[in-house]
Amino acid sequence: MDQTIFGKTDLKVGRTGFGCIPIQRIPYDESTAILRRAYEGGVTCYDTANGYTTSEERIGIAFEGMRDKVVICTKSGAGTPDALMANLENSLKMMKTDYVDVLQFHNPSFVPMPGGEDGMYDCLKKAQQQGKVRHIGISAHKKEPAIEAVKSGLYAVLQFPISYLSSAEELAIIELCREHNVGLLAMKALCGGILNNAKAAFAFLRQYENVIPIWGIQKMDELEEFLRYEDNAPALDAAVLKEIEADKAELAGSFCRACGYCLPCPAQIPIPMAARMSFLMGRMPSERFLQDEWQENMRRIEDCSDCGNCTKHCPYELDVPGLLKEQRATYLKNLA
Question: Are 276 and 129 within one domain?
Answer without folding.
Answer: no
